[in-house]
Write a structure and sequence with these properties.
Largest sheet of chain A: 6 strands, mixed
Number of domains of chain B: 1
CATH architecture of the largest domain in chain A: 2-Layer Sandwich
Oligomer: heterodimer
CATH superfamily of the largest domain in chain A: Probable tRNA modification gtpase trme, domain 1
Shape of chain B: globular
Shape of chain A: globular
Structural class of chain B: alpha+beta
Distance between the termini of chain A: 40 Å
Strand order of the largest sheet of chain A: 10-11-12-9-3-13
Radius of gyration of chain B: 13 Å
CATH topology of the largest domain in chain A: Gyrase A, domain 2
Number of strands of chain B: 9
Distance between the termini of chain B: 10 Å
CATH topology of chain B: OB fold (Dihydrolipoamide Acetyltransferase, E2P)
CATH superfamily of chain B: RNA polymerase II/Efflux pump adaptor protein, barrel-sandwich hybrid domain
Number of helices of chain A: 9
Helix content of chain B: 10-25%
Number of helices of chain B: 4
Chain lengths: 358, 124
Amino acid sequence: MKQTPLYQMHIESQGKMVDFGGWEMPLNYGSQIKEHHQVRHDAGMFDVSHMSVVDFKGAKAKAFLQILIANDVDKLKTQGKALYSCMLNELGGVVDDLIVYYQNDEYYRMVINAATTEKDMAWINTRVNGFDVSVERMSDLAIIAVQGPNARAKVFAAMPGLEEVCGELKPFNAASLGGLFITRTGYTGEDGFEIMLPSNAAKFTWKMLLEAGVKPCGLGARDTLRLESGMSLYGSEMSDEVSPLEAALTWTVDLSNKNRRFVGRDALEVLKNKGVKKTIVGLILKGKGVIRDHQKVMTNLGEGEVTSGTFSPTMGKAIALASVPKGSTGQCEIEMRKRQVYAKIVKLPFVRNGKVLV
Amino acid sequence: MSEIRDDRQYTQTHEWILDNGDGTYTMGITDHAQALLGDMVFVELPSVDDEVSIENEFCVLESVKAASGICAPVDLQIVEANKALDDEPELVNSSCYDDGWLVKFKSDSVDGLMNATTYVQTLD
């Protein structure tokens, strides 16, 4: 199994290591619920070095990305500005979801999922022919996500000189400092940074963050935090077979420029004209139990399926994301371990910045 | 390394059974099992006097990670269920051999279980 530059740090913190798409990663360091609360109330950090950073450079970098992804990089005008998007196949299914950062018209940086990296790189490389663009995977980078209401203050305390550069950094923007690339982004619904840094500086930085009172958090807490914040997970809410229009990601698809014929656009336009039948909603279980992935859901408009189910530590209830007929409202029925239970359909997110919104 | 106690017997499915000496037995899950399941969030307990045949499920443990059914190791009748778990399911994690017990039951005979030495050999 592959290990990140922070593997030794996880072992020292008694991380319970598991196989995550070929990477040996910490599921938790004792209690994923405690780690979850740590992020909602203070500051926690995640090793996300298994994710891949890909740089696009060249005269046609912008033109290429305008074809490659469904959101329009033409929206990016200032250095460090970030854009969330899906990369689609010809049928409109999602090859991956990603964030792209603008450096200049000839240099963009993209962050893609770990488990899809090989597939994504193959996909990108078959399409880059004919464009004056170099595509380089930056494999010598580590990524530490520091998240929580006190995350930024603790990062500044741990890393001297950073506040001058990132003190005023706005959400969904990035700044560079030496070999560091710092983004005010995350996957938890809390404020914070994701810090890309050279692999050989990862352990030292992790230790400094530990000393500043940032607690290590594992993949378990990362999943309950993203689910509470209503964020999609590739492979669960969307996949090669599910389009962004059916996954509540319509806001990430930019059809405004008719001349921008990005991969998958034709299929999306056909789907849109036929009428989108499905969407992703939130569910809150009434009563006790835990909703699990793939359980069947019956709404007022028909059948659906749980795409991500869990127990919400913040709400003290079972919650889920589910793919259901578009327009479903009110109460739905879930088939759970030989019994029928009821859940309320709600708008996402469940939790944002420490507050329950549903 | 998971904790194992010498004073009780074990099943292949990582439950422990303690002979109370009065014809009743207390049952819970082992340290190995609670660590595998992760943070417990809900325990569905049986009712007192329920009669359960061997290998039938009578209790469900829901952790953040997964739901796990507990099956009867022998034919048994429930004498008491640990009501403290309704409010504090995390006792199964923090005190699996003491406060985090699941049920007390009575049974004519409790055979075919492993002692601590044998059980430890079944773990990696």
